[in-house]
Amino acid sequence: MNGKASVAVGTPLPPLSFRLTRAGLVRYAGASGDFNPIHHSDRVAAGVGLPGVIAHGMLTMGASLRAVNEWTGNPGSVLDYSTRFTRPVVVPDSDEGVELTVDGSVVAVLDEARVRLELTVRCGGEKVLARTRVVVRV
After folding, report:
1. Which pick of 1, 50, 51, 92 has the fewest CB atoms within 10 Å?
2. What pLDDT is attached to residue 60?
3. Which residues, including other chains, have CB under 8 Å from residue 13's CB and lie 6 or more apart?
4. Alpha helix locations (H) across 1-56?
5. Helices (H), 48-93
């Protein structure tokens, strides 16, 4: 971010892409304590009607904030975050995993110290999160 003077409605966040892999899901499960087998077992995921092993929802949410943190340069700048899940992020059993892309822009200047961002989070060209709104301190 180039400073408060350059933040206006319409200011874009640079797009960010990153990969989610099965190995990453295992690491996240260990860190979060969420060992639900839909996040590591194709058999269990299929058994509950999922198209495959899916990423943890909180992992997807947290990953989307990477774009915000890179833009502000300060992870402590996030004041509020909300979103809705629209599609599961299916993570194939491959070294490449799956690509998640995040972009967004400033949709409101709340005061001289805070702005509201709206993010678009996609996987395979499909939105996986909707109404993703973040209030940050600038």
Report:
1. 51
2. 97
3. 67, 68, 71, 102, 103, 104, 105, 117, 119
4. 22-32, 42-47
5. 57-72
